[in-house]
Amino acid sequence: MAPKLDVRRANAEKKYAGDLSFAFEADPSLIGIPLVAFSSPVEAKLHYEILEDDSVEITGSLAFTLKGSCSRCLKETERRVCGEAEGYFVLGGDGGEDYSYTNGVIDFGEFLRDSVIFLMPARLVCGETCVAPDYQEE
Q1: CA distance 51 to 54
Q2: CB neighbour class for 56 (10 Å; exposed up to 12, middle 13-18, buried from 19)
Q3: What is the pTM (predicted TM-score) of this model?
Q4: Domain limits of the chain?
């Protein structure tokens, strides 16, 4: 379960910036690679900053491990995936590019789901005999 940030409380306590570290179980349906699953919870290290208009910037990193069959040779393999995550939350947003929150509380669920999808590799390759070919521009 993803944590929440109570923006009203943080403002009242004059905590306009802070760090959050937590782990969560990602939805297995986020993986589009056959015969692959999460082998560890997703680890999140996020920093938030509440701006004057009560919008909130989130930056940080996510890391998780995938385990399953190599997409090329089907050999059992495992890969650690790490990457950056950033989002912008607007109070009562209009459904545009930014995330919205209501009642002064940010639920990170959609943001974390989108961030995991963005970091997901297109395939899981064992790296021993199945290295990806180098990209060559023509």
Answers
A1: 5
A2: buried
A3: 0.86
A4: 4-119
Ranges of residues in the chain with a pLDDT under 50 are 135-138
Question: Closest Cα partner for 27 from 6, 15, 14, 41?
Answer: 41
d(CA 16, CA 9): 10
CA–CA gap between residue 126 and residue 74 (Å, rounded): 9
* Helix/strand/coil percentages in the chain, nearest 5: 15, 45, 40
Closest CA to 43 of 110, 115, 121: 115
So what's the pLDDT on residue 132? 56
The b/e string for 110-136 (b: 16+ C-beta within 10 A; e otherwise) is ebbeebbeebbeeebbbeeebeeeeee
CA neighbours closer than 13 Å in the CB half-sphere of residue 68: 17
The secondary structure element, H or E, covering residue 53 is none
By DSSP bridging, strand 36-38 and strand 42-50 are unpaired
Count Cβ atoms below 10 Å from residue 38 Cβ, excluding itself.
19
Per-residue model confidence (pLDDT) at position 1: 60
Q: What is the DSSP string of 64-81?
A: EEEEEE-TTT--EEEEEE
